[in-house]
Specification:
Layout: H1 11-14, E1 22-26, E2 32-34, E3 49-53, H2 64-74, H3 89-92, E4 111-113, H4 116-122, E5 125-130, H5 140-156, E6 163-168, H6 172-183, E7 188-195, H7 201-209, E8 213-217, H8 221-234, E9 238-239, H9 245-251, H10 253-261, E10 269-274, H11 279-293, E11 302-308, H12 313-317, H13 349-363, E12 368-373, H14 375-386, H15 394-408, E13 417-422, H16 430-437, H17 477-495
Parallel strand pairs: 5-13, 6-7, 6-9, 7-8, 10-11, 10-13, 11-12
Antiparallel strand pairs: 1-2, 1-3, 4-5
Helix pairs in contact: 5-6, 5-9, 6-7, 9-11, 10-11, 11-13, 14-15
Length: about 500
């Protein structure tokens, strides 16, 4: 639709005009800093930052009803800058002009309801939100669209030049960073640090294919992160990990999309998220809070954060019921199929603590919960989901395992509807499926494949055939006819299917 075809009362709002006044706010000493330069931690106390809009209260001048209509009508606009996460421009990056917005097709990923058989098996009505359908096949594209749009804006203003974007990664962050940085080359180049042999071949190929300089180092993600932090503190680089508060802003779009897809009614809604570096759960809480405070939604959904038993520092922190007695202690991670979650010291932990408190207080009761799950349950749940029409990654399996655990612990009410985050595409992690099917998991994973869930190809080569097709040597005539008949007969026998009756 063209703007002049929209209702008159909506037309002034179709293209955002909110004059946001964004600042960095320290979660430690509460100091504030301007956003005219890249800052990742507080220069005074070293704590992580959140980006806040000092003009946010003016968004409340528009009623929640009108905001809902604005976002719904924007769906029909053919404006690239508003097709992705910036449909919610006023809430994500109101200082970024349209000409600086990077849109590569991210956002607005589908929510797919589980089939009746799977819902009956789980005992809860639920959906997978397939964030693997983002451009680099993971949710990280949401944050990169925001971070790189900001960098592009700073370059256009002359505040930055010859940018080297850098990140540590377990695979998905590097793929997204390399992709979005490549769109801005030659003004922006990228480098990524990966833990050696702890990233899937598919993920490695993505960053290499986008032209990033890739460095593999010994250790795990936490070790890579320490090196990247050292580089960002001493050298002129743009850090693209979730320590970068612009990443958090972009990932808030996940919450806004859920609200819009559920027609802004989040009563009896539960959102289940796997936790790695804790940036995503931070963003999701922040997004729902913004919509709640402006009256766009009337209820805050329940949020359940899920961690593997092999990397569960956030879950362990919240085991202590008394907030005054809680003390965060990093953990030593063990091998996990949820590779993005193999983080023992999440960068965004201070943000989690701050926002969980704010979220619960805003609703007047506890609305954020944490569970941990076994590696066995993660893989069993992933395979089960995908046998029922989904394309869940291992982290999607982690979300489903978390839903089951939450139900067992009484966190889920019978009338609840759950939205499960499948953070990446299943094909990124098909090596784990192959290990499951072939029973080749190393002992440290603690995974024993369920034989009812394994699968393998069946090779058909009837022994009574003298000749079979070969590459470059096709069969013809009677040989081809006999080959087709014998192979079809053997397959029919295995499948126990009956021959069609003749009507002649």
């Amino acid at each position: 639709m063209k703007p002049h075809e929209f209702p008159e009362d909506i037309r002034p709002y179709l293209q955002p005009s909110h004059a946001g006044k964004l600042i960095y706010r320290c979660l430690g000493c509460k100091r504030e800093f301007g956003i005219d330069r890249l800052v990742y931690v507080c220069p005074s106390c070293g704590q992580v930052l959140l980006i806040c809009d000092q003009n946010f209260s003016s968004l409340k001048d528009i009623s929640g009803t009108l905001w809902r209509r604005i976002f719904d009508y924007r769906r029909m606009l053919n404006v690239p800058a508003l097709k992705g996460i910036y449909r919610y421009h006023e809430f994500i990056g109101p200082i970024i002009p349209f000409e600086a917005v990077i849109y590569l097709g991210e956002g607005h990923t589908p929510m797919v309801e589980a089939n009746l058989a799977l819902q009956k098996k789980i005992g809860v009505r639920f959906f997978f939100k397939n964030d693997g359908q983002n451009p680099s096949a993971s949710f990280k594209d949401r944050g990169m669209a925001s971070a790189l749009s900001y960098i592009n804006f700073m370059v256009q203003k002359g505040h930055l030049s010859d940018v080297l974007a850098i990140c540590a990664s377990t695979g998905d962050t590097s793929a997204a960073a390399a992709l979005y940085a490549s769109y801005l080359q030659p003004r922006v180049k990228s480098a990524v640090l990966l833990p050696h042999k702890k990233v899937t071949p598919q993920q490695l190929s993505q960053s290499l294919g986008s032209g990033a300089m890739v460095f593999e180092i010994p250790g795990v993600f936490d070790d890579c992160m320490k090196v990247v932090e050292a580089l960002s503190e001493s050298y002129n680089v743009a850090l693209l990990n979730s320590k970068n508060a612009w990443r958090i802003l972009g990932q808030e779009s996940y919450s806004y999309e859920i609200a819009q897809d559920l027609e802004y009614d989040l009563s009896n809604t539960v959102v289940v998220l796997p936790i790695g570096n804790a940036g995503n759960i931070t963003a999701v809480m922040s997004g729902f809070l913004k919509f709640f405070e402006t009256g766009i939604i009337g209820t805050l959904p329940k949020i359940i954060g899920v961690q593997s038993e092999h990397a569960n520092p956030v879950y362990r922190y919240y085991l202590e019921p008394d907030a005054d007695k809680r003390k965060f202690v990093p953990v030593t991670v063990k091998s996990s199929v949820a590779q993005a979650a193999m983080i023992g010291n999440p960068v965004s932990m201070p943000r989690v603590i701050h926002l969980v408190k704010h979220y619960n207080e805003s609703d007047g009761r506890r609305k954020v919960f944490f569970v941990d799950v076994s590696e066995q349950n993660i893989m069993d749940c992933q395979i089960t989901a995908n046998r029922n029409g989904h394309i869940a990654c291992t982290h999607g399996g982690e979300s489903l395992a978390g839903l089951l655990t939450a139900k067992e612990r009484g966190i889920i009410d019978p009338q609840d509807i759950a939205i499960l985050d499948s953070t990446a595409h299943a094909l990124k992690f098909n090596g784990f499926q192959e290990m499951y099917f072939s029973q080749q998991f190393p002992p440290d994973y603690n995974i024993s494949p369920n034989q009812d869930l394994t699968n393998a190809p069946v090779y058909i080569h009837p022994q009574n055939l003298d000749k079979v097709p070969e590459s470059g040597k096709p069969l013809t005539g009677d040989n081809l006819k006999r080959f087709v008949e014998e192979v079809a007969k053997e397959i029919a026998t295995i499948l126990e299917i009956k021959k069609i009756r003749s009507y002649s």
